[in-house]
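Backbone shape codes:
***
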Amino acid sequence: MSTIKNRPITEGIINGNHQVLKSFYKKNLPIVRRFILQYYGCTEDVEDIFQEAMILLYHQLRYKNLELPKASIHSYFIGICKNLWRNQLRKTKPLEHLELIENYIQDNLDSIDDIITRNDQRNLLHKHFSRLTDSNKEMLTMVFDGKSNKDIARITGCSEGYTRKKRTLSRKSLMELIFQDPLFPELKESSAKVILN
């Protein structure tokens, strides 16, 4: 969609034209709803993300003179919503965010070699995670569950400083085990091939 076709919509958004806004909501809300509900959101999340994206779009149009020479304003808006939702997932639900990334990768990489490599990497991670001490497993599990250092400190009864240090040491222990595994160089090379192709 060209700038000429975007202009009535952008002007309507800037001026708060009720009909333009209603039409914009009607066209974009179902797409945003489907995406967020598919990736661990609820109706309230849909409403929050949609409103936050509308505010961002309004500010970009009004104060930054955003121009979309070739892109549809609808596509641009959907992109804003998806990025906001990914950022929120990353902060509040790290495991779901990782699954969202995995799903995105799986949707975009069809090669059986890629799938095998990902599975091997996941198996390597699980293999060495199980070899960690109980305290390291407990720490990393809380990290993977998205708990902050403050939350972990409260749960474990330790200071935040110690929690930060323990978190770093636990991660380092896991990474050392993975790096020492004879399969790691091979998987690292396979990953590079996947990225380069």
Observations:
- The first helix runs from residue 3 to 15.
- The chain has two domains: 3-97, 110-196.
- The domain at 110-196 is CATH 1.10.10.10 (Arc Repressor Mutant, subunit A).
